């Protein structure tokens, strides 16, 4: 919301205080009355800070946690990874959380790969592992594969499964 206001205010050449006024004017109806209390004497940045404090988690610095990644992988580990659609949903959800965590230096590339593999049911995980070993026989077993390698191997395993129908 504030990013949109910033962008539009820049185009309209609004002053700091005009940004505050128009932000309150276009605030969600349920929030407008509360936001009005923070208007008097506020600079744009102080106003945003005060409003942001009313919405814990809105700063996006703690949008996702390692626990969110654990919950996701545990949920998918219980599902049969039997289609590219299911795999795609898992991959996108996993990337959304893990890329955020990596951007905040809360997880490494190796941890991402290890956790990604843990989200597959045991049978599918063994098939991917076998495919990865076949593709890269010199890969040391204690070194994690790259996420892109796991992704490609998973798609290959799923394509072989669909060929057998």
Word description of this protein:
The chain has about 160 residues and is mainly alpha-helical. The protein has 2 domains: about 1-55, no CATH class; about 65-165, no CATH class. The protein contains 9 helices and no strands. It has helices at about 1-10, 15-25, 30-35, 45-55, 65-75, 85-105, 110-120, 120-135, 145-165. The longest helix has 20 residues, at about 85-105. The termini are far apart. The mean pLDDT is about 90.
Contiguous uncertain segments of 5+ residues: none
**What is Rg?**
23 Å
Shape: elongated
The tally of structural domains comes to: 2
Content of β-strand: under 5%
Question: What is the mean predicted local confidence, pLDDT?
Answer: 91
Strand and helix map with partners:
Layout: H1 2-12, H2 16-25, H3 29-36, H4 44-53, H5 66-77, H6 84-103, H7 109-118, H8 122-135, H9 147-163
Organism: Hypholoma sublateritium (strain FD-334 SS-4)
Protein name: Retrotransposon gag domain-containing protein
Q: What keywords describe this structure?
A:
165 residues; mainly alpha; 2 domains; 9 helices; 68% helix; 0% strand; elongated
Short overview:
The chain has 165 residues and is mostly helical. The protein has 9 helices and no strands.
């Amino acid at each position: 919301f504030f990013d949109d206001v910033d962008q539009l205010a820049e185009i309209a050449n609004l002053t700091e205080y005009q940004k505050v006024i128009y932000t309150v004017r276009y605030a969600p109806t349920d929030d407008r009355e509360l936001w009005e209390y923070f208007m008097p004497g506020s600079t744009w940045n102080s106003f945003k800070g005060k409003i942001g404090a009313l919405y814990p988690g809105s700063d996006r610095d703690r949008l996702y946690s390692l626990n969110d990644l654990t919950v996701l992988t545990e949920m998918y580990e219980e599902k049969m990874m039997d289609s590219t659609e299911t795999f795609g949903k898992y991959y996108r959800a996993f990337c959304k959380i893990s890329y955020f965590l990596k951007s905040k230096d809360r997880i490494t590339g190796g941890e991402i790969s290890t956790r990604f593999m843990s989200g597959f049911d045991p049978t599918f995980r063994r098939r991917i592992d076998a495919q990865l070993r076949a593709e890269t026989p010199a890969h040391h077993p204690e070194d994690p594969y790259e996420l892109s390698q796991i992704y490609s191997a998973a798609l290959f395993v799923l394509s072989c499964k669909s060929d057998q129908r």
